[in-house]
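Please describe what follows:
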Amino acid sequence: MTTTTGTATPKTPHPLRAQAVRGFPPLAGAAVMAAAGVMMTAGAREWQGDWAETAGQVHDGLLMVLPMAAAVGCLHGGRERRRRTEELWCTAVRPPLTRLLAHAVPVALWVAVGYLLVVAGVTAATWPYSLGDRPHLVLVPGDTAALMAASLLGHVVGRTVPSLLAGPLLGVAGFAGLAVALPHDGVQPLDPASFAPDGSRPVWWQPLAMAAWTLGLALALILAYAARRRVTALLPLAAAVTAGALLVQGGNATWQPEPLFRRQVCDTSTTPAVCVNARYGKLLPQVTAALSGVTGRLRGVRGLPVRWADRQGGPRAGEAQLPILTPLGWSLVRGRLVRPDRYSFEAVAALTGRGRCERQSERVTLADDAVQTYLAPSPLMSAFDADEARGDAAARAHLRASRAARAALAGLDEERRRVWLSAYFAARAVCDDEGVPAL
C-alpha cells in the first residue's frame, strides 16, 4: 500500500516483537541464565564427565530457578501499575488478553532461552570428558515448560497484587512450596523440581505430562484473569488436571532404570578381572592401570574373586566391590582418576574385607594389614603408624607386631608368598584363626 505521494507506509511492528527485543524481558532471561550458570559452574567438579549427573544437576537447579522465574514475571507484571500507566493501557484498542500476552509471553520466552543456553553450555562442558554414556536431555522440554509457566503465573500475580515486594515474596513462597513438596510421595510427582532418581530416566510421556500440567495451570489462570469469556479457562484447566492425574497415578512408575547402568565393561586380561559400570566405560584403561600394581603382585595366586565389579546393589557371588566413583569430584574429576594410590588401596580393602566379622582374632588382623600393605598400602599408613607409636604400651606392641608381619610377608620368596597368599584368600571369609596362615 502506498500514500498519495508514492512513499511506502511503514509497517507497524508486532507487539510481541516490540516487547521482546528491548527492555525487561532480555534482562529476565539474562538473570535466569546467570543464576543457573553460577550454580552449575560452582559444582562443575561434581558433574563434568558424567551425562546422567550433568542432567540431574541441571534439573535439580529448578528448585532455585523456578521461583526466580516466577519472581521476575511478577516484577514485570506489576510494571504498568508502578508506572501509573495502567489506565492508559486500558484505553487501548487491543483486548485485555492480547495486552497481557504481549507483555507476559516475551518474558517467558526469554526465561526459556536463558535456561536452554545453560543446558547447551553444560552439555558442551561435559562432552570432552564423557566416559561412555550419552547426553540425557529428556527432561529439558518439561523443565523449560515449567519455567515458562512459572513466569506466566508470576505475571498474573504481579498484575493482581499492588506491591513492589510481591515479586521477592512470590519467589520465597515458591521456593518454600517446592521444598515442602519434595519429601511427600503424594505431591512429589506434581513437583516440576522434584529430584530425579539416580540411575533412572523418565518414561517418554512424563516430560509431556509435566509440560501440560504446568502450562495448563498457567494458561487457565491467564484466561480466567483476562479473557472475555472466562469459561474458556476450563479447557487448559482440564488438560492440566488430566496430566496431573496421570503423573500422580504413575508415581514412581514414571521413572525406569537406565539399561546402560546395569551393564559392565570388563578387562579380563588381569586376575581378578576388572569390570566398570558401562556408564564409565571409557574409564576402564585408567582403572586397570591404577590396579596394575595389585594385579601384578597377585599373578598366579589362587582363591581370588573372579572380578572386581561395579554393580548397582553390590557385587554378586565371586566378585569384589570396585571402589565407587560417585559422587564425582573426589576420586574422579573431569574424566580422570585423581588419586590412583587411594583408589588401589580401596580396591584391595574390598578384596580382603571381612564385612560379616563383628570381631577378628589377632592373627586375622595382622594378616589383613600385611596383605593390604603389600598389595596397596594406605596413603595414610605413615600417619596411622605415628599415632600408634605415640600411644600406650598396647598400641606400641600392636605396631611392632604389624611391622613384623609386613616384613615377614615382604621377605618371602615369590613362590612361598604365592602359596601363602593363596591360603590367605581361600580363608578370606574366616573371622578367627582357623585356616588363616600365620606369618
Remarks:
- The beta strands are 200-202, 255-257, 264-267, 273-277, 307-309, 319-321, 332-333, 336-337.
- DSSP finds 18 helices and eight strands in the chain.
- The chain has a mean pLDDT of 86.
- The first strand starts at residue 200 and ends at 202.
